[in-house]
Amino acid sequence: MFETLLRHPLLVLKQAARDPLDALAALLDDVYSRIEPANTIGYIADPDWESALQRRVGMSSESEGEGFWPLWSTVVDTLRAQGMVAGPCSFYGWNDGDAGFVRTIWCLIRRLRPVNVVETGVAHGMTSRFILEALETIGAGRLWSIDLPPLNPMTRQEVGVAVHQTGVPIDRWTYIAGTSRRRLPALLSRLGQIDLFIHDSMHSNRNVMFELECAWRYLSAGGVIVVDDIDVNPAFDTFTRAHAEHPSFVCTAEPLRPDTRRFNQKGLFGIICKQSSQDADLEQSSRPMTAIPRQS
After folding, report:
1. Which of 25, 130, 206, 289 could form a disulfide with 179 if both were Cys (CB 3.0 to 4.6 A apart)?
2. Strands 194-199 and 173-177
């Protein structure tokens, strides 16, 4: 935001005057992201995460994954035909959803059949597009997307471009312009319950923790949270440790080309499955007891 202020001061002031509270929230998020210490969590991806997730929610890659790859190729080709970049840094330094991240969400929707889906962060709308298309295949559900549009007018024109295409079920979509810090609590309160939450907005520890804590309170039993770019901050580790009774997975991203900013050239995303209290108690009781060593 500071760079945009230097390049387009009048645009920033105009936007701030239009919605000063959102502007202040965005400024604070940017400040905190700059002063947060570097991530020291050495995340290790689960090599079998996809199979483990399928077993957890009872889905198969063949049935739930049907239709994903042809649509993926179509969406990527459409963006490129419109002169846009796909892959890492595809949205002015930000990433659109990679194939692993988006495919997981596609399969979860087709298996869980969610009624209310909420995401933060839109960019070109890759993830939003696949959520809407997946909801259409099951004939149910709506998507709410919260995103603070860029101040640069040229960049702003590209927001959600993957969604604004012929044949996309846009009637299932509600786009909410603003910061998640201001818009997410009110949205969740109005919906009452959500079944799937996707974080892909500002990846600061402060913001991720805020969004996860908000979404968790409204997430239905059996619902799922998917968090992109978990390797850039410790929030996913902190949150899953605090909710250790609920299964979680560390997953390797599948970018279209190497992401040289990431330790593994790919990046990571995370998944948290919210169990009912009965399921958690049953799983806990089925675990073998660990013998306590005697004192010598």
Report:
1. 25
2. unpaired
The neighbouring-strand residues paired with 142 are 116
Query: What is the full DSSP assignment across 58-105?
Result: T--HHHHTTTHHHHHHHHHHHHHHTT---STTTBTTBPPPPHHHHHHH
Report the domain count for the chain: 1
CA torsion, ordered 257, 259, 265, 267, to nearest 10 deg: -110
- Name 223's Cβ contacts closer than 8 Å, sequence gap at least 6: 112, 114, 194, 195, 196, 197, 273, 274
pLDDT of residue 294: 36
* CATH code of the domain covering residue 131: 3.40.50.150
Q: What is the pLDDT of residues 139-156, one digit of tens each?
A: 999 999 999 887 677 777
For 28-47, the pLDDT digits (tens) are 777 767 888 878 889 999 99
Helix segments in 113-179, DSSP class H: 126-138, 153-156
Largest CA distance in the chain: 74
Residue 172 domain boundaries: 44-285
Residue 9 counted as domain residue: no
Residue 294 in any domain: the answer is no
Residue 25 within a domain: no
Q: What is the mean pLDDT of each run of 10 residues along the chain (296 residues)?
A: 56 63 73 80 93 92 89 95 87 86 97 98 96 98 93 79 95 96 97 98 94 98 97 96 97 94 94 82 49 38
Asked if 218 and 191 count as a contact pair (C-beta separation under 8 A), the reply is yes
